[in-house]
Amino acid sequence: MADSLQQFDLLIRNGQMVTAYGERRADIGVKDGKIVAIESDLGGEARRVIDAAGWLVLPGVIDPHTHMGIPIKDTTSADDFASGSEAAACGGVTTIFDFTVQEKGQSLKEALEVRLQKARDRCSVDYGIHVNVTDAPERWLEQIPELIAAGFRSFKVFSTYREAGMMVTWEQFRRILQQVHAHGGLLLLHAEDNALVESQTAANVNAGRLAPIYHARSRTAEAEAKAVKQAAEIAGELGARLYIVHLSSRAGLEAGLRAREQGVDILLETCPQYLLLDESKYRQPNGHYFITTPPLRTRDDAEALWQALRDGHIDTVGTDHCPFTRAQKESGSGKFHLTPNGLPGVETLLPLLYTYGVAEGRIALPRLVQVLAKRTAEIFGLTDRKGDIRVGADADLVIWNPNEETAIAAENLHGQADWSPYEGMRIAGRVEYTLLRGQVLVEQGEFVGERGKGELLRR
Ligand code: URP
Ligand code: ZN
Ligand code: ZN
After folding, report:
1. Which pLDDT score is estimated for 439?
2. 224 lines ligand 1 (CB under 6 A)
């Protein structure tokens, strides 16, 4: 080859490149971890060439919501950063955002340091950390500006889980939101009205109604909507942006959209479980496995969320990946209030959204990229590197083969959960390759990359 030809580390040829703006056939050249050229027919030499003819090339997925190894109900979610990030990569996810776990009496900075220790040299995809505030005396809130200055710009609170010592009151919520907003950060909220949740839970438990369906009856859509409304009012008064995690219901969605109409800067995230599963799962023999918070809802709720996703009203889809093994799920003897809450999901995010969103005609391909990568990158301050396929961006790419029909089977997934909420569901394709900063992490659906090389993303 002539010297004048470009030299690439990697060349992806003949793929159908999809961004949030549209799709076209393009070759993509990668050097030193970055995308350096995009052309319809790229000349040049490369150390490695991937022929992506017939396949889609998408930006690596960004999952804004995972819980690797967090304590819940006397146990710990089954994936740590090592296993969870490997599963993520196998599903085309190249960036995750996880959360600190703040113990009582522990400062926000100490909790962050502990979390960073757990991820460092173990996480195989790039990662950001949201700082979760569960203990909120003023002396800890004073650390917020410093954390933001150090690149930790997103914070999260729960308006529930009082029994677990994780709830903040609405007064504390106001103060935290004010502080985060004043210093240019973003606050995330798990929105459930705790008074309603506690009274409905107590009524069910006291009456001996402990079957899994009573999880849904104890943590209702009304409780979600009430908390969204309350939080949005405070955000509106403060003129602060607010991000609602794992929105699950039509009522919650409507509360969010009403606030938006009234000028509140409110961002909405939902999860595959609320789009694809419903509360009938709780009536199955293994119904207690599906206990997650917020609970699964009705088909009508799912329809409302799909519509909002299609119409651009929902900003992001995350997974709330928080897996427990069957043995862990059994530890509560099938009782809803004793079963550890959470579902696996990081590896099935793209396959499910592609199949039931794009292939079944609910959303367009560019919209998929928007909610799984582009918009997420914008919200969490990663647009200089992530969420798009453009010259100068990190070469975080997922190559999706839409020609192979597969089905979800827990035994083929890579996380620690030995079951999947989506077992047997048809998938219209499969991940062929996942690339992180130009490195091949996954090939033909299997992890082949170097482990623990994910980078911490300060923003
Ligand atoms: O039940 C769930 N989703 N567990 C993880 C913690 C949370 O509320 O997101
Ligand atoms: Zn939550
Ligand atoms: Zn969560």
Report:
1. 98
2. no
Rounded to the nearest whole angstrom, what is the distance from the C-alpha of residue 30 to the centroid of ligand 3?
34
Question: Where do the structural domains in the chain lie, given as residue ranges?
Answer: 61-379
Which CATH number describes the domain made up of 61-379? 3.20.20.140
E strand or H helix that includes residue 216: helix 213-218
Predicted pLDDT at 228: 99
Mean pLDDT for back-to-back runs of 10 residues, the chain (459 residues)? 71 98 98 98 94 98 99 97 98 99 97 98 98 97 98 98 97 98 98 98 98 98 99 98 99 98 98 99 98 98 98 98 98 97 99 98 98 98 98 98 97 98 98 98 97 97
Instruction: Count Cβ atoms below 10 Å from residue 284 Cβ, excluding itself.
Output: 11
Do residues 198 and 167 touch, judged by C-beta distance below 8 A? no
Q: How far is the CA of 3 from the centre of ligand 3 (A)?
A: 52
Q: Is 48 left (phi over 0), alpha (psi -120 to 50) or beta?
A: beta
Residue 44: what pLDDT? 86
Task: Point out the ligand 1 atom lying closest to the alpha carbon of residue 65.
Answer: 9
Ligand 3 center to 312 CA (angstroms): 22
The verdict on pTM exceeding 0.85 is yes
Q: What is the pLDDT of residue 6?
A: 81
Residue nearest to atom 8 of ligand 1 (CA): 293
Q: Which residues contact 451 (CB under 8 A, 6 or more apart)?
A: 82, 86, 122, 124
CA-closest residue to ligand 1 atom 4: 342
Which of 63, 65, 67 has most ligand 1 atoms within 8 Å of CB, for mutation?
67
Pocket perturbation via mutation, ligand 1, pick of 99, 192, 292, 337 by most ligand atoms within 8 A of CB: 292
The two beta strands, 34-39 and 22-31, are antiparallel
Cα-to-centroid distance, 294 and ligand 3 (Å): 9
Q: In this structure, is the dihedral angle defined by the CA atoms of residues 84, 89, 91 and 97, taken in order, positive or negative?
A: positive
